[in-house]
Amino acid sequence: MHRGSTGIALEPHPDRLLPSDPTERSIARRLYESVRDLPLISPHGHVDPALLARDTPFGDPAELLVTPDHYVTRLLHAHGVPLRDLGLRDEDGHTAAPREVWRAFCSHWRFFLGTASRQWLEAELHDVLGVTVHPSAATADALFDEISERLAKPGFRPRELYESFNIAVLATTDDPADDLRHHRALADDPSWRGRVVPTFRPDRYLDATNPGWPAALERLAEASGIDTGSYRGTIAALEQRREFFRRHGATTTDHSAPDARMEFLPEAQASRLFDAVRAGNAAPGEARLLSRHLLGEMARMSSEDGMVLALHTGVERNHHEPTFARYGADTGHDIPLHAEFTQALKPMLRRFGTHPAFQTVLFTLDETVFSRELAPLAGFYPTVYLGAPWWFLDAPRAMRRFRDAVTETAGFHRTAGFIDDTRSFCSIPARHDTARRVDAAHLASLVAEHVLSEDDAHEVLHDLNDRQPRKAFRL
């Protein structure tokens, strides 16, 4: 890195994240080069399908890189930048102008040092947008103008970027009541050659502890045409919407539950609970019991329709109530919790652990369970795959700890590859590149230790970037 006349040069090192040991680095380079240009498979993320259906050009760098990325906004908030100054709209609809958002981001650039976000942002800026100087207070306005001008040129519309990123398949995350019009528009467009599939995300319809649950069921009724005033009607509506999603290419249902526990109650008991909770007459704990049963019903449905059940657990949503009240959900203040899987999943796995049609991918934010619980579960049950380190753990060293923790028990082929889990479209290739470098480094260490051959390492690395995500998510 050197300082030029316009600022400090932005020059991501070609060997970033590869081993420092010369022997291992040489092996890792060869491994990485063999997969660096493979198509990207993104089985779980939060890109809005309207972005590609409408193909509207990005307006400015703040809209592209800052506001949609809660990894970015949460850390800047920790350094005293109000979320409104980062492009988020408060309850009154107020927000900062894009140039002001970008200035706030650039002037706090140094605070990203050492973070995974810094790796992704440097790759986005340099590799995607052609930026050659680091953001700073001094360079903010010039970079804003440079990037804005570039975004208006051919090659930078969303569909063009999708193609340049070499994305093979992109899964979005969608509400069961969504009409999937944007997915249909893409499928019906003869000029579109990509593959974008929806994912069924029914959390709001399963969480009977949420005060908004009755209103959510009304929305489900409107979308399905089935009365959700009863337990049986709600189950029928969920089944109907799953089938609608399947017809539009969905292969996965995605669930973010407080914990992994499921219940399987007799229908009569579930129906009584449903009526009591909906009427506001339930005893303490009954709403949680019903929610766990409804999640269990999702597992039962997966065993019948073959949709993969992806389970993300172990997070306290909306930890800061004042921020939630002002800005809403998914604004950077969700915090990891302790997780437990061995006992929690036993009722589900007793029923479906060896079921030929059932399949689940397990994610957690508690890395202490990787070797103690998740690897042994995936090392026995043919229906269980281990999801990639997710969210707070999708950082290079955490990814490496995941491989160290699970491989000796479960191997590489009981894992599900990599997920980018992002709302920030241009971070997709950067995040996949990070994972490829980390896995190349891990495999190089095993080759250097003569645990496996370099040919084996090449095959594994290709599997982790193609075969495993396709198999685990049935893509």
From TrEMBL:
EC class: isomerase
Biased composition (Basic and acidic residues): 12-22
UniProt-recorded Gene Ontology molecular function terms: glucuronate isomerase activity
Keywords assigned: Isomerase
Coiled-coil features, chain-numbered ranges: none
EC number(s) from the headed UniProt entry: 5.3.1.12
Matches recorded under NCBIfam families: PRK02925.1
UniProt similarity note: Belongs to the metallo-dependent hydrolases superfamily. Uronate isomerase family.
Protein name as catalogued: Uronate isomerase
Organism: Amycolatopsis viridis
